Amino acid sequence: MDKIMKFNRIANWLIIIFTLLSTWGCYRTPPALLRIGLNTWPGYEFIFLAQEQGLFAKAGISVQLIEFPSLGDSRLAFERGQLDVMASTLSEVLLAKEHLQSCPPIFYVIDYSTGGDVILAQSSLTKIADLRGKRIGLELGSVNMYLLARALEKSNLTLDDVILVPMTPDVMKYAFYNRTVDAVVTYPPLSVILQQTGQTQQLFSSQAIPQEIIDVLVVQADVLATRIDELVAFIRALEEAVQYSLTYPNKAYPLMAEREGISVQAFSQILNQQLQMIPLAKQRPFFEPQGILEQSLTLMDNTFRKVGYLTSSQRTINCVMSKPVLRATDQ
């Protein structure tokens, strides 16, 4: 009898152990989400496309895309540690550095603007010089400030010669329609919507300052140190999304255009004429010492300091991190 009871106890323990082992996978801690902050911009649509096509899951990473109404809102969330990665221009990188006292590492280049960022004015204004004393709607703490500063500089004007009216992109449209501002600094899709009215004058665009407005991915320093494999996987998935769009534009473009709220034709025109996507094979020149990124960062830093937008003594050092791109390229 004792032997039977002993056997039953052993059998029961074996059943318990087997059950625990067999259900262990169900209770494992799921992989941490990679929180990506971004706003509306055609170049960022490929990130959404990668999510839509399941490419991040295929790469073995869990990604949460958090969309913000403006670049400034995304930057503030990044500064507060609410994001792991931020899609932004170099302007937001420098402004984040100003507040964080260290430069968030840039680990990927999405695109650069070749005419997408514009200054649009009421039809009665025909040149930048006409903006003297006029009200300019723009998003402070964003690339809007840089584009305006560079445009004014080229016409021998400064920010002191115009009246800055801070506003978010969603307010900007109505401010322009209602003529409470004389001009706005903007980019697609809002620029497309405004230009469709036929009542705007384009006074300046990023085409006049090539490779100065660059869209990048930046990461929290601790995430870079501990989760670099996920960043590499993210880059590879994003590259796959870009290639998918090239192979199947009739499938990819309608999805991305719908999210932007513009026509497929307008979206295609933006990709062909107003921004230049940077595939993985062309990333290296941006990350080289004294390469495109460092040169553009230095120019932007100097411009912002000239207008008093940056004041810290720390210059643009340690902003560029090539390791994730190089690893993604070598795979």
Automatic annotation (TrEMBL):
This is ABC-type nitrate/sulfonate/bicarbonate transport system protein. The lineage of its organism: Bacteria, Pseudomonadati, Pseudomonadota, Gammaproteobacteria, Thiotrichales. It is found in: Periplasm. Signal peptide: none annotated. Residues 45-252 form the SsuA/THI5-like domain. It holds the Pfam family NMT1. Gene3D superfamilies: Periplasmic binding protein-like II (3.40.190.10). InterPro entries: SsuA/THI5. It comes from Thioploca ingrica. GO terms for cellular component: periplasmic space. Keywords: Signal.
